[in-house]
Specification:
Elements (H helix, E strand, L loop, with lengths): L2 E5 L2 E3 L5 E8 L7 E7 L6 E6 L7 E2 L7 E6 L4 E6 L8 E8 L13 E2 L3 E5 L2
Parallel strand pairs: 2-11
Antiparallel strand pairs: 1-3, 3-8, 4-5, 4-9, 5-6, 7-8, 9-10, 9-11
């Protein structure tokens, strides 16, 4: 059974950093597409960063390019999202997701397994 669990969210001041973690079980990170998504109040869930295959380059939303970095530690079955230079508009619930079908997109509708989410609030 595919399971994902996010952690690492919290309150941070603008310009600060956070690292989100997503512990996974029930599947091999090398065989699944993985990604981070976020949903702000009143807005649709959006893709932040995704990796379709281990050999592919990560996809980043334009709004986070140069500030966020997705990575994995396969030995720990964990996905990370390093977030630097955070802005108030980054405030949202952040989710990690996985799907056994790899596509070169970062669309929520293409991911079938989700974690419960972790809140990130950027505010002074």
């Amino acid at each position: 059974q595919v399971q994902l669990a996010e952690s690492g969210g919290g309150l941070v001041q603008p310009g600060g950093s956070l690292r989100l973690s997503c512990e996974t079980s029930g599947f091999n990170l090398d065989w699944y597409a993985i990604g981070w998504f976020r949903q702000a109040p009143g807005k649709e869930r959006e893709g932040v960063s995704c990796i379709s295959t281990p050999d592919s380059s990560p996809i980043y939303a334009d709004s986070v390019k140069g500030r966020f970095t997705i990575s994995t530690n396969n030995a720990k079955n964990t996905i990370y999202l390093q977030m630097n230079s955070l802005k108030p508009e980054d405030t949202a619930v952040y989710y990690c997701a996985a799907d056994r079908i790899s596509r070169s997109t970062c669309q929520p509708r293409h991911f079938g397994s989700w974690g419960q989410g972790t809140q990130v609030t950027v505010s002074s």
